Amino acid sequence: MTADKLSVQVAINSWRSTVERVNKMLSNLPDDQLLKEVAPGRNRVVYLLGHLTAAHDAMFPILGLGERLHPELDAIFVSNPDKTEAQPPVGELRKYWEEVNGKLLAQFATLSPDEWLLRHNAMSEEDYAKDPTRNRLAVLLSRTNHMSYHLGQMTLALK
Amino acid sequence: MTADKLSVQVAINSWRSTVERVNKMLSNLPDDQLLKEVAPGRNRVVYLLGHLTAAHDAMFPILGLGERLHPELDAIFVSNPDKTEAQPPVGELRKYWEEVNGKLLAQFATLSPDEWLLRHNAMSEEDYAKDPTRNRLAVLLSRTNHMSYHLGQMTLALK
Protein backbone atom coordinates (compact mmCIF):
# COMPACT_ATOMS: atom_id res chain seq x y z
CA MET A 1 0.00 0.00 0.00
CA THR A 2 1.36 3.45 -0.89
CA ALA A 3 1.84 6.05 1.86
CA ASP A 4 -1.06 8.28 0.79
CA LYS A 5 -3.41 5.31 0.38
CA LEU A 6 -2.42 4.11 3.85
CA SER A 7 -3.22 7.51 5.44
CA VAL A 8 -6.66 7.56 3.84
CA GLN A 9 -7.30 3.97 4.90
CA VAL A 10 -6.44 4.81 8.51
CA ALA A 11 -8.94 7.70 8.41
CA ILE A 12 -11.70 5.55 6.88
CA ASN A 13 -11.04 2.82 9.48
CA SER A 14 -11.44 5.40 12.23
CA TRP A 15 -14.76 6.54 10.73
CA ARG A 16 -16.02 2.98 10.33
CA SER A 17 -15.09 1.87 13.83
CA THR A 18 -16.85 4.92 15.28
CA VAL A 19 -20.02 4.15 13.28
CA GLU A 20 -19.80 0.59 14.60
CA ARG A 21 -19.57 1.87 18.17
CA VAL A 22 -22.71 3.95 17.65
CA ASN A 23 -24.46 0.94 16.09
CA LYS A 24 -23.55 -1.21 19.07
CA MET A 25 -24.87 1.41 21.48
CA LEU A 26 -28.10 1.73 19.49
CA SER A 27 -28.59 -2.03 19.52
CA ASN A 28 -28.42 -1.88 23.33
CA LEU A 29 -31.04 0.88 23.58
CA PRO A 30 -34.69 -0.14 23.07
CA ASP A 31 -36.87 2.50 21.40
CA ASP A 32 -38.29 3.77 24.70
CA GLN A 33 -34.80 4.41 26.08
CA LEU A 34 -33.96 6.43 22.96
CA LEU A 35 -36.56 8.89 24.27
CA LYS A 36 -34.47 9.55 27.39
CA GLU A 37 -32.47 12.75 27.85
CA VAL A 38 -28.72 12.15 28.04
CA ALA A 39 -28.63 14.40 31.13
CA PRO A 40 -31.40 16.39 32.84
CA GLY A 41 -32.69 19.09 30.50
CA ARG A 42 -30.36 18.05 27.66
CA ASN A 43 -30.98 16.47 24.24
CA ARG A 44 -32.71 13.13 24.01
CA VAL A 45 -30.79 10.24 22.41
CA VAL A 46 -33.29 10.18 19.54
CA TYR A 47 -32.50 13.82 18.75
CA LEU A 48 -28.78 13.10 18.64
CA LEU A 49 -29.41 10.10 16.37
CA GLY A 50 -31.34 12.34 13.97
CA HIS A 51 -28.69 15.06 14.32
CA LEU A 52 -25.86 12.69 13.42
CA THR A 53 -27.87 11.23 10.51
CA ALA A 54 -28.48 14.73 9.12
CA ALA A 55 -24.78 15.67 9.53
CA HIS A 56 -23.67 12.50 7.75
CA ASP A 57 -26.28 12.93 5.01
CA ALA A 58 -24.88 16.43 4.37
CA MET A 59 -21.49 14.85 3.62
CA PHE A 60 -22.70 13.60 0.20
CA PRO A 61 -22.75 17.07 -1.41
CA ILE A 62 -19.83 18.40 0.67
CA LEU A 63 -17.61 15.55 -0.53
CA GLY A 64 -19.00 15.65 -4.07
CA LEU A 65 -20.55 12.21 -3.69
CA GLY A 66 -24.03 13.02 -4.95
CA GLU A 67 -27.36 14.19 -3.63
CA ARG A 68 -28.54 13.92 -0.04
CA LEU A 69 -30.91 11.11 0.86
CA HIS A 70 -32.77 12.95 3.67
CA PRO A 71 -32.45 16.75 3.44
CA GLU A 72 -35.73 17.04 5.38
CA LEU A 73 -33.86 16.05 8.57
CA ASP A 74 -32.02 19.39 8.82
CA ALA A 75 -35.04 21.43 9.91
CA ILE A 76 -35.85 18.89 12.62
CA PHE A 77 -32.41 17.93 13.91
CA VAL A 78 -29.98 20.74 13.00
CA SER A 79 -31.69 24.14 12.64
CA ASN A 80 -34.03 23.57 15.60
CA PRO A 81 -33.48 22.23 19.10
CA ASP A 82 -34.94 19.00 20.50
CA LYS A 83 -38.67 18.86 21.34
CA THR A 84 -39.68 21.69 19.00
CA GLU A 85 -40.35 19.84 15.72
CA ALA A 86 -42.36 16.70 14.95
CA GLN A 87 -39.86 13.86 14.52
CA PRO A 88 -40.08 10.73 12.35
CA PRO A 89 -40.78 7.50 14.31
CA VAL A 90 -37.73 6.02 16.02
CA GLY A 91 -37.83 2.94 13.78
CA GLU A 92 -37.63 5.16 10.67
CA LEU A 93 -34.69 7.08 12.11
CA ARG A 94 -32.82 3.86 12.78
CA LYS A 95 -33.36 2.91 9.10
CA TYR A 96 -32.16 6.31 7.83
CA TRP A 97 -29.03 6.02 9.95
CA GLU A 98 -28.18 2.61 8.45
CA GLU A 99 -29.04 3.78 4.94
CA VAL A 100 -26.96 6.98 5.03
CA ASN A 101 -23.91 5.34 6.60
CA GLY A 102 -24.08 2.31 4.31
CA LYS A 103 -24.12 4.47 1.19
CA LEU A 104 -21.43 6.84 2.51
CA LEU A 105 -19.00 4.03 3.24
CA ALA A 106 -19.56 2.56 -0.23
CA GLN A 107 -18.94 5.98 -1.78
CA PHE A 108 -15.78 6.59 0.27
CA ALA A 109 -14.23 3.59 -1.48
CA THR A 110 -14.72 5.26 -4.88
CA LEU A 111 -12.40 8.18 -4.03
CA SER A 112 -8.69 7.87 -4.80
CA PRO A 113 -6.12 9.10 -2.22
CA ASP A 114 -5.53 12.16 -4.40
CA GLU A 115 -9.23 12.94 -4.49
CA TRP A 116 -9.40 12.84 -0.69
CA LEU A 117 -6.83 15.64 -0.65
CA LEU A 118 -8.84 17.88 -2.99
CA ARG A 119 -10.97 20.79 -1.91
CA HIS A 120 -14.34 19.97 -0.37
CA ASN A 121 -17.43 21.69 -1.77
CA ALA A 122 -18.17 23.83 1.28
CA MET A 123 -14.84 25.61 0.55
CA SER A 124 -14.19 28.26 -2.11
CA GLU A 125 -11.32 27.80 -4.60
CA GLU A 126 -9.71 30.93 -3.15
CA ASP A 127 -9.79 29.79 0.47
CA TYR A 128 -8.58 26.34 -0.50
CA ALA A 129 -5.63 27.88 -2.34
CA LYS A 130 -4.66 29.61 0.92
CA ASP A 131 -5.08 26.48 3.03
CA PRO A 132 -4.86 23.09 1.23
CA THR A 133 -5.61 21.24 4.49
CA ARG A 134 -9.29 22.25 4.05
CA ASN A 135 -9.89 19.13 1.96
CA ARG A 136 -12.19 16.11 1.92
CA LEU A 137 -10.00 14.22 4.37
CA ALA A 138 -10.41 17.08 6.88
CA VAL A 139 -14.21 16.77 6.52
CA LEU A 140 -13.99 13.05 7.22
CA LEU A 141 -11.94 13.57 10.40
CA SER A 142 -14.14 16.45 11.52
CA ARG A 143 -17.32 14.40 11.15
CA THR A 144 -15.72 11.41 12.88
CA ASN A 145 -14.94 13.65 15.86
CA HIS A 146 -18.44 15.10 15.77
CA MET A 147 -19.84 11.56 15.94
CA SER A 148 -17.52 10.64 18.85
CA TYR A 149 -18.56 13.81 20.70
CA HIS A 150 -22.25 12.88 20.58
CA LEU A 151 -21.55 9.17 21.10
CA GLY A 152 -20.00 10.12 24.44
CA GLN A 153 -23.25 11.86 25.34
CA MET A 154 -25.60 9.15 24.03
CA THR A 155 -23.71 6.53 26.03
CA LEU A 156 -24.82 8.27 29.23
CA ALA A 157 -28.38 7.06 28.52
CA LEU A 158 -27.27 3.42 28.79
CA LYS A 159 -28.05 1.79 32.10
CA MET B 1 3.13 20.25 0.36
CA THR B 2 3.44 16.57 -0.64
CA ALA B 3 0.35 14.33 -0.38
CA ASP B 4 1.58 12.33 2.60
CA LYS B 5 2.66 15.46 4.47
CA LEU B 6 -0.75 16.98 3.80
CA SER B 7 -2.58 13.95 5.24
CA VAL B 8 -0.51 14.08 8.41
CA GLN B 9 -1.05 17.83 8.71
CA VAL B 10 -4.82 17.37 8.46
CA ALA B 11 -4.69 14.82 11.28
CA ILE B 12 -2.52 17.03 13.50
CA ASN B 13 -4.85 19.99 12.84
CA SER B 14 -7.79 17.86 13.93
CA TRP B 15 -5.97 16.93 17.15
CA ARG B 16 -4.97 20.52 17.86
CA SER B 17 -8.43 21.96 17.26
CA THR B 18 -9.95 19.36 19.59
CA VAL B 19 -7.43 20.21 22.33
CA GLU B 20 -8.34 23.87 21.82
CA ARG B 21 -12.04 23.07 22.24
CA VAL B 22 -11.30 21.30 25.52
CA ASN B 23 -9.17 24.25 26.64
CA LYS B 24 -11.98 26.67 25.86
CA MET B 25 -14.45 24.56 27.82
CA LEU B 26 -12.05 24.34 30.77
CA SER B 27 -11.58 28.12 30.75
CA ASN B 28 -15.36 28.45 31.12
CA LEU B 29 -15.53 26.06 34.08
CA PRO B 30 -14.38 27.42 37.48
CA ASP B 31 -12.73 24.84 39.74
CA ASP B 32 -15.91 24.19 41.74
CA GLN B 33 -17.83 23.35 38.57
CA LEU B 34 -15.15 20.85 37.61
CA LEU B 35 -16.31 18.90 40.65
CA LYS B 36 -19.79 18.42 39.11
CA GLU B 37 -20.89 15.11 37.63
CA VAL B 38 -21.55 15.31 33.87
CA ALA B 39 -24.86 13.47 34.50
CA PRO B 40 -26.36 12.06 37.71
CA GLY B 41 -24.18 9.24 39.03
CA ARG B 42 -21.62 9.64 36.22
CA ASN B 43 -18.00 10.81 36.17
CA ARG B 44 -17.14 14.27 37.39
CA VAL B 45 -15.50 16.67 34.91
CA VAL B 46 -12.31 16.64 36.99
CA TYR B 47 -12.06 12.86 36.60
CA LEU B 48 -12.44 13.13 32.82
CA LEU B 49 -9.76 15.85 32.75
CA GLY B 50 -7.37 13.54 34.63
CA HIS B 51 -8.42 10.62 32.43
CA LEU B 52 -7.68 12.51 29.20
CA THR B 53 -4.37 13.79 30.60
CA ALA B 54 -3.31 10.23 31.49
CA ALA B 55 -4.36 8.94 28.04
CA HIS B 56 -2.42 11.69 26.29
CA ASP B 57 0.61 11.20 28.54
CA ALA B 58 0.63 7.52 27.55
CA MET B 59 1.06 8.58 23.92
CA PHE B 60 4.73 9.49 24.48
CA PRO B 61 5.94 5.88 24.80
CA ILE B 62 3.31 4.49 22.37
CA LEU B 63 4.48 6.90 19.65
CA GLY B 64 8.17 6.48 20.55
CA LEU B 65 8.40 10.10 21.69
CA GLY B 66 10.06 9.53 25.05
CA GLU B 67 9.12 8.92 28.64
CA ARG B 68 5.80 9.81 30.23
CA LEU B 69 5.58 12.97 32.32
CA HIS B 70 2.89 11.74 34.75
CA PRO B 71 2.63 7.94 34.91
CA GLU B 72 1.17 8.30 38.43
CA LEU B 73 -2.14 9.47 36.88
CA ASP B 74 -3.01 6.01 35.55
CA ALA B 75 -3.87 4.50 38.92
CA ILE B 76 -6.13 7.43 39.75
CA PHE B 77 -7.80 8.17 36.41
CA VAL B 78 -7.59 5.00 34.28
CA SER B 79 -7.38 1.82 36.35
CA ASN B 80 -9.85 3.02 38.97
CA PRO B 81 -13.23 4.75 38.72
CA ASP B 82 -14.02 8.26 39.92
CA LYS B 83 -14.28 8.92 43.67
CA THR B 84 -12.16 5.96 44.73
CA GLU B 85 -8.63 7.43 44.71
CA ALA B 86 -7.20 10.64 46.15
CA GLN B 87 -6.83 13.11 43.28
CA PRO B 88 -4.30 15.93 42.79
CA PRO B 89 -5.77 19.43 43.30
CA VAL B 90 -7.73 20.77 40.33
CA GLY B 91 -5.15 23.52 39.73
CA GLU B 92 -2.40 20.92 39.42
CA LEU B 93 -4.46 18.87 36.98
CA ARG B 94 -5.01 21.92 34.79
CA LYS B 95 -1.22 22.41 34.70
CA TYR B 96 -0.53 18.76 33.82
CA TRP B 97 -3.06 18.98 30.99
CA GLU B 98 -1.29 22.02 29.50
CA GLU B 99 2.14 20.52 30.04
CA VAL B 100 1.39 17.14 28.44
CA ASN B 101 -0.43 18.60 25.42
CA GLY B 102 2.21 21.29 24.88
CA LYS B 103 5.02 18.76 24.80
CA LEU B 104 3.06 16.30 22.64
CA LEU B 105 2.30 18.89 19.97
CA ALA B 106 5.96 19.94 19.87
CA GLN B 107 7.00 16.29 19.51
CA PHE B 108 4.45 15.62 16.77
CA ALA B 109 6.29 18.15 14.61
CA THR B 110 9.50 16.11 14.87
CA LEU B 111 8.00 13.07 13.09
CA SER B 112 8.23 12.85 9.30
CA PRO B 113 5.18 11.69 7.30
CA ASP B 114 6.88 8.31 6.82
CA GLU B 115 7.43 7.97 10.56
CA TRP B 116 3.73 8.59 11.21
CA LEU B 117 3.00 5.55 9.06
CA LEU B 118 5.33 3.26 11.01
CA ARG B 119 4.26 0.76 13.64
CA HIS B 120 3.35 2.16 17.04
CA ASN B 121 4.97 0.64 20.11
CA ALA B 122 1.83 -0.98 21.54
CA MET B 123 1.84 -3.20 18.41
CA SER B 124 4.06 -6.25 17.76
CA GLU B 125 6.13 -6.46 14.54
CA GLU B 126 4.12 -9.53 13.57
CA ASP B 127 0.70 -7.91 13.98
CA TYR B 128 1.86 -4.78 12.20
CA ALA B 129 3.07 -6.88 9.26
CA LYS B 130 -0.49 -8.26 8.97
CA ASP B 131 -2.13 -4.85 9.26
CA PRO B 132 0.00 -1.78 8.37
CA THR B 133 -2.86 0.56 9.28
CA ARG B 134 -2.00 -0.06 12.96
CA ASN B 135 0.49 2.80 12.87
CA ARG B 136 1.23 6.04 14.72
CA LEU B 137 -1.30 7.97 12.64
CA ALA B 138 -4.03 5.53 13.76
CA VAL B 139 -3.09 6.23 17.39
CA LEU B 140 -3.38 9.97 16.79
CA LEU B 141 -6.86 9.63 15.25
CA SER B 142 -7.98 7.21 17.94
CA ARG B 143 -6.89 9.55 20.76
CA THR B 144 -8.49 12.54 19.02
CA ASN B 145 -11.78 10.64 18.94
CA HIS B 146 -11.35 9.60 22.56
CA MET B 147 -10.91 13.26 23.49
CA SER B 148 -14.01 14.29 21.47
CA TYR B 149 -16.02 11.53 23.16
CA HIS B 150 -15.26 12.85 26.64
CA LEU B 151 -15.46 16.49 25.53
CA GLY B 152 -19.07 15.82 24.57
CA GLN B 153 -19.67 14.60 28.13
CA MET B 154 -17.73 17.37 29.89
CA THR B 155 -19.67 20.00 27.95
CA LEU B 156 -22.86 18.83 29.71
CA ALA B 157 -21.50 20.32 32.95
CA LEU B 158 -21.51 23.82 31.39
CA LYS B 159 -24.45 25.95 32.39
What class would the helix/strand composition of chain A place it in? mainly alpha
Largest interface: A-B, 37 and 37 residues
Helix-strand sequence of chain A: HHHHHHHHH
Shape of chain A: globular
What is the mean predicted local confidence, pLDDT of chain A?
A: 95
Distance separating the two termini of chain A: 43 Å
The portion of residues assigned to helices of chain A is: 55-70%
The DSSP helix count of chain A reads 9
What profile does the largest beta sheet of chain A have?
A: none
Residue stretches of chain A low in confidence (pLDDT < 50, at least 5 long) are none
What is the oligomer described by this structure?
homodimer
| Residue share in β-strands of chain A | under 5%
Number-wise, the strands of chain A total: 0
Radius of gyration of chain A, whole Å: 16 Å
Please explain how this structure is put together.
2 copies of one chain form a homodimer. Chain A is globular. Chain A is mainly alpha-helical. In chain A, 62% of the residues lie in helices and 0% in strands. In chain A, α1 runs antiparallel to α6 and α1 (3-27) packs parallel to α9 (136-154). The A-B interface holds A 1, 3-4, 6-11, 13-14, 18, 38-40, 42, 113-114, 116-117, 132-133, 135, 137-138, 141-142, 144-146, 148-153, 156 and B 1, 3-4, 6-11, 13-14, 18, 38-40, 42, 113-114, 116-117, 132-133, 135, 137-138, 141-142, 144-146, 148-153, 156.
